[in-house]
Amino acid sequence: MHPFTEHFKKGKSRIYMVDARVKLVFAILLLGLILSYKGILFPAFVILISILTCIRLRLPLKVFLLRFSEPLFIASILILLKFFFTGKNAMFMINFASFTITGYSDGLKEGLMIACRILAATSIVALLGFSTIFTELIAALSWLRVPKSFTEILIFAYRYIFVLFEEALVIYNAQKNRLGYSNIRRGLSSFGTLSGSLVLKAFEHNQNLTISMIQRGYDGNIPMLRHKPFKPPEVILSALVIAILAFIWKI
Amino acid sequence: MKTIYCFFLVSVFWFLFSGDAYAMHISEGILPFNWAALWFIVAVPFVAYGLYRLKKVSAIDISFKPLVGLMSAVVFIISCMPIPVPTAGTCSHPCGTGISGILLGPAISVLIAAVALLIQALFLAHGGLSTWGADVVSMGVVGSFAGFFTFKVLRLLKINMAVAAFFAGLFADWATYATTSLELTTGIRGDSAFMPLFIKILVAFIPTQLPLGIVEGAMTSGMIMLLYKKRPDLLVKMGVIKSGEAL
Question: In A, which residues are within 8 Å of B123 by CB distance?
Answer without folding.
Answer: 3-5, 129, 134
